[in-house]
Amino acid sequence: MKTISVQIDDAKAALLRDKAMRYGLKPDELISAPIDDLLVHPDPEFDDAAYRVISKNKELYQRLA
Fold first, then answer.
1. Domain residue limits at 35
2. From the CB of residue 1, how many other CB atoms can be counted at a distance below 10 Å?
3. pTM above 0.70, yes or no
4. 8 Å CB contact between 8 and 16
5. Rounded Cα distance, 59 and 6, in Å
6. Is 24 inside a domain boundary?
7. How many domains does one find in the chain?
8. 16, exposed or middle or buried, with CB in 10 Å at 0-12, 13-18, 19+?
9. CA distance 45 to 52
10. Residue 16 parent element (H or E)
């Protein structure tokens, strides 16, 4: 399993810990639930928009690479 670190400010970290505690979860468990949902059930509108942007700017991305 891979670990990904995300920096959030102290106030948000405290809110995350409090909310996770209310649900009886660890903060990382609370964070991973919506990520799992996004990966399993991606938003087709987002996928379409991302594809259009990437296709439209393909030449630019190749020059920048």
1. 10-64
2. 2
3. no
4. yes
5. 31
6. yes
7. 1
8. middle
9. 11
10. helix 10-22
